[in-house]
Each structure stands twice: as structure tokens, then as C-alpha cells.
Amino acid sequence: MNAIISDLDINRHIRRVLVKHWIDLGKLSIRTTKGRVAIRGYLDRISGSQERLSSPVVDGMFNDIERINGVERMQVDLANWVNSEGKWLLLDRGKNLAKSDAQTSDIRQTSYDL
Amino acid sequence: MKKLLSIDDEPMMLKCLSRALKGKGYDLLVTTDPEEGLEILRRQDDICLALLDVKMPKKNGFEIYRELKQFRNIPVLFVTAYPRAFTAKSDDVVEMWRDEFADGTTDIIYKPFDLPALFEKVEGLIGTACESGETQ
Predict the structure, then answer these.
(1) How far does the CA of residue A83 sit from the closest CA of chain B (Å)?
(2) Domains of chain B by range and CATH?
(3) ipTM rounded to 2 decimals
(4) What distance in Å separates the CA atoms of residue B47 and residue B7, rounded to the nearest whole number?
(5) How many angstroms separate the Cα of B35 from the Cα of each of A86, B52, B56, B63, B107?
(6) Where are the domains positioned within chain A?
(7) Of A3, A11, A50, which is closest to B124 when you measure between CB atoms?
(8) Does residue A3 register a pLDDT over 90?
(9) What pTM was estimated for this model as a whole?
């Protein structure tokens, strides 16, 4: 039987997943309320990272977050990635630069009911 | 009341943080002196979050962070205007990212930020001022 996991624990586990993939935490907002996770912002690795994020990596990362104990639902709104038919795709880089400044003004939203 | 400590060499930033977080019900201690900040963290074991500036003249936020992690493992929020301070080209940052960030108790907020973003980061690490911040 799974132990009850708090929203703070879920946040901590999410950050662990993101850190594992060298994601810049300063460009993301993470909020968990009663197991409902909301991730917003600009998804990118910290500067100087040798490899750019790829679709399979982003897919795997959000799959890992979905599987965190206690996560009931996940909503992801990213300025530079869009979910198309279950696959995460990087939006046009030129547009992304402008969007990174505007943060979530033109967000793409994907929700998961688990 | 949850007690926080902010170390930043800009008094105006400390004033803004203090006003904002106290308004949310947190008890915020502030200092511009990294050594004094570390001493406060050693003496006051009820501090549950440290907010650290990165670029400071006497001792940078990464050095404070590493010293802090040697004697206490509390959540840390880096507050910086320099996103490129977190670079995978720095061996120190890479080591810190792998060794300390990996436990998920560290977050980053970039200046300038709005207050809702600050509150979200703080609450995401320790919860609201009134709720229990215990993690399993």
C-alpha cells in the first residue's frame, strides 16, 4: 500500500526528475495542489549543456513525473514545447526566443487525467 | 510561523523580499553578510528555507550553499539576475547540480520576478506560512 504523499513531496520529486535532465528550474513554475500538478513556463536545459532537449527525452521526463506517487493529474503549459498527439515537439526556435521573454503569454496546454 | 533567511548584498532587494514574505505570514530574517547568514543558519535550527543571492562580493551564493549543506539540509531558493550562473560549463556547478540539487530541495527564481512567482516558489518548497511544511 502506498504511503500518503504530500504536495510538497510531489514538488520535490518533480524537481528531482527535472534536475536529472539538467532542466533550468528558474524558467519553470511548478505547483501541486492535492495531487494536481501544474507545470508552466519555458522548458530548457541550463546554459552550457552539451545536448539539447529532444522529444523522446521530454516524453520520458513527463512520463516520469506522471508516475510519481500521489500525482492525480498533470497540466503542462509550455511556451516552447507543444504536445501533439501524445508526443512533445519543440516549437520554432526563432519564435521561442520571443516567447521565453513573454513566458506564458502564448501557452500551449496539455492536461492529463491519470 | 515559518522562519526564513535571505542573504543578498542588495539592501533594497532584502527590503522587498521582507515586505512581500512578511505580508504572506512568513518570518523573514535578512542579512547582506554571507558569514553572518551562515552563523544565523548554524544557530537557529528553526529556519526552514534559505534564499540565496548568487553574485555577492564577499562570498557567492554557491559557496554559501555548499557550506550550508555541510551542516544542514534545508530547502534553498536561489534568487539571481544571472541565469547563466547556472552553467554546465562550470565544474563547480555540475558537481553541485549532481550532488546537492538532485535531492529536489533546491529551486531557482530569476530577477526580475513578480510576487506571485516568488510566492509560488517559496510555497512549492515549504508550503504556505500556516500549513505544515513537513515532508516524508
Answers:
(1) 24
(2) 3-125 (3.40.50.2300)
(3) 0.93
(4) 13
(5) 50, 12, 12, 11, 22
(6) 7-113
(7) A11
(8) no
(9) 0.89
